[in-house]
Amino acid sequence: MNLTANEKKTFFLHLTYAFLSGIIQGVLALNEFVFIKSLHGSNFQLGFLFQFSVVVFAFLFILNEFLKRITNKKKLLMVVGIITHLPMALLAFFPHAQPSPIYNYLFLGIFLVYFMGWPVTLPLINLFLKNSYRHAHFATLFSYATSVTKATMLLVTFGYGLLLDLDNYAFTWIFPGVSLLGIGAIYLLTRIDYHHPESVADISHQGMVASIGQSVKNMLEILKDNAPYRHFEIGFMLYGVAYMMSITVITIFFDDALHLNYASVAFYKNGYNVVAILLLPLCGRLMGKIDPRLFAGMTYLSMFLYIVSVALTEFFAFHFEMWDIRFYYMLLPYMVFNGAFVAGMSLLWSIGSAYFCNDEDVADYQSLHLSLVGVRALFAPLAGVWLYEMIGFALTFSIAAALLVLAMGMMVWSHKKQAQ
């Protein structure tokens, strides 16, 4: 691959950031299990913990107007990184015993602050990388960096799981270090060469309310005028509701129905991440060659298959134990299909919308994309918990699978419609 000097510098910084991000994600991968197993949080509190990670995007269109007005985006990224990562150090003061219920709410509050940084950092990261990488190399280089993140996450998740089995409250001294690593990772991103393309005179001097109204109008026009992107987002909405309904319920299923320990959960998470690492470079090349709607359809199919595998585990619960890990036979295909899903969605979620627009419109399209993620987060995670408590695991998983079938159908129909 013939890279420019700027692309080489950016890729080095991107890879280093990806490594540190992998450490952070490796710890966060067990966060929901920590909440119900160590802090004994309720099912609905667990739903809120996942909801916080995505609902913060619901009002991204407001932040998008704010981001446009900031010329020193690197400084903004650094300030937000510090403010949102430092509170995790407060977990050092959590008691190493059966904690008071108040600590559940403190835990939720700390991670709400952390997740509130994502609507600022993720669009800016995407903007910096899209500005530095040429279109032909964007997906491939992004997939390589994501592979580094996944490989690091794999090792950290497994080690952290073993540590938590030895000490259920190990998170109290792990997270202060994670907070510092997160700030360091953000600093690396600020070293990427990026210059705001507009002069101060070019920035809108409309009032904030008027600008927000214009932003909403622009987003509605994007959905109205760009039919392929509109179809893509409809499919993504169906998939997203299915994912958010099922992800928290799967965590509850692993604890309540399968009685997995930390090491077992870490093993299954690592299993599908191994598959994701192996498939990411292939997915990066594939995404650059085929219509993103077809790529999305294949990704949704992978999730459909892993949901079915988990659901069948309730009825075919054959397993054996080795090395303090409980191996369920039906969770082996779950790892494979989930790995394929993670590989595809890592690219689709981060850069999928960029394939439907010009480079200068990436921020607007990604802002709309993430805002819609936040909209479904307003109801889907808690709806999943409510459905599980009302109708059980099997029917909840069946509803999620049906939504994925609709999402796949939308992608195929949209592609065929445009080809006609």
UniProtKB/TrEMBL annotation:
Example GO molecular function: transmembrane transporter activity
Superkingdom in the source lineage: Bacteria
Calcium found in the keyword field: no
InterPro entries given in the database record: MFS (IPR011701), MFS_trans_sf (IPR036259), Sugar_transport-like (IPR052528)
Annotated coiled-coil segments of the chain: none
Transmembrane segments: 12-36, 48-67, 76-96, 102-129, 141-163, 169-189, 234-254, 266-288, 300-320, 332-356, 368-388, 394-413
Transmembrane helix in keyword set: yes
Keywords associated with the record: Membrane, Transmembrane, Transmembrane helix
PANTHER family tied to this protein: INTEGRAL MEMBRANE TRANSPORT PROTEIN-RELATED, MAJOR FACILITATOR SUPERFAMILY (MFS) PROFILE DOMAIN-CONTAINING PROTEIN
Protein name: Major Facilitator Superfamily protein
Natural source organism: Desulfocicer vacuolatum DSM 3385
